[in-house]
Amino acid sequence: MDLKELRTRIEDIDSRILQCLAERRDVALAVAQSKANQASRIRDTERETSLLLQLMEQGAELGLDPSYLTRLYHIIIEDSVLMQQAWVQQGKGTGTLQIAHLGTAGSYSHLAAQGYAGRRQCQLQGLSCETFRDVLTAVEDGRTPLGILPIENSTSGSINEVYDLLRHTHLHIVAETYLSVEHQILVREGEEETPITTLYGHPQAIAQCSRYLSHLDGVNVVACPSSAHAMEKVANSQESGIAALGSQSGGALFRLVAVANNLADQPENQTRFILVQRQPVQVPSQLPARTSVIMATHNHPGALADALIILRQHELNLIKLESRPMPGNPWEELFYMDIAIHEQSPQWQGALKELKSMTRFMKVLGCYADERVKATHVMHPERSQHK
User: Fold this and answer.
1) pLDDT-derived band of residue 384, with 50, 70 and 90 as boundaries?
2) Which pTM value belongs to this model?
3) Which residues are annotated as a binding site?
4) CA nearest 229: which of 262, 203, 197, 210?
5) Binding-site residue positions for substrate
6) Per UniProt, where does substrate bind (predicted)?
7) Is 146 exposed, middle or buried (0-12, 13-18, 19+ CB in 10 A)?
């Protein structure tokens, strides 16, 4: 066969792979329905381990590398787990899901909202906002039922502005989602060889690529309200030598091409987003849950330690602790905590009662399904025999 025929054959194979992935998703949803009826836990790591071992053995007979199959099926299993959790939480989605997000189509917040809606079999109807405050206001005013906000990144850390805004809103955190972020330098088609003099990007994207950007001599790095703003500015400008920090999919929307990729300081660059709405949700017992709170301790030595001791006494797993200055009270701190627990559990209710009695201020921001899906790791049988 000539090259054209070979490429046609690859396209046919890829089409069948897509059909099989869609069929696998349908079966995964049926599994979720069965687990919901039986109140069974969604995650079965023993089953995942057995599946991966079986696939590696079958793959070895076909000449496929075990590490390649493991990476591939980690993605497939993660998608399956998150989709099943979404179904157990709210059932089969219908129609559209309205979500306010920072920036226009192509921004990282927009991509995260798309992924969240897609796992719920819904089309995204996005509402573009200029600032994080605008996202909250759109939900508070009833213009949209949901808002999505980035809250922390694995490279640049917490997004302090969002933490500060959460203190003043009556909205509830009802979900979280994660987005793998791969930053690229994007330019207009035909300008791939033009030296870059100005680079536009969102402050978080700039911070996450600080090591790479520090070596760009003669380039003026300019902050924009969102990555979509940066890409739109480059796409619509007639100026030569300008570029944007953005994603591959976002760049495609603006017909920009990448001249550099994988720019983040850390190779595994993920952003965690929270979703907020006016009413809280109740997380089904078979789903792992996370409860987020704000508290202010009394201003005396050991006050925070005393609060953390209460969590330990109730055997609660603290997975996030963030401090922020308290406005109007110099040198005093507010503390944001994420705890791996269902809000309605007696274990948490007992701890909450004690914490309220010993703190100056205590507010539960929300309880929601924990979407951290840790990869199941197995060793290839042949390798384990040589240990």
Assistant:
1) very low
2) 0.80
3) 7, 24, 35, 44, 48, 80, 84
4) 203
5) 7, 24, 35, 44, 48, 80, 84
6) 7, 24, 35, 44, 48, 80, 84
7) buried
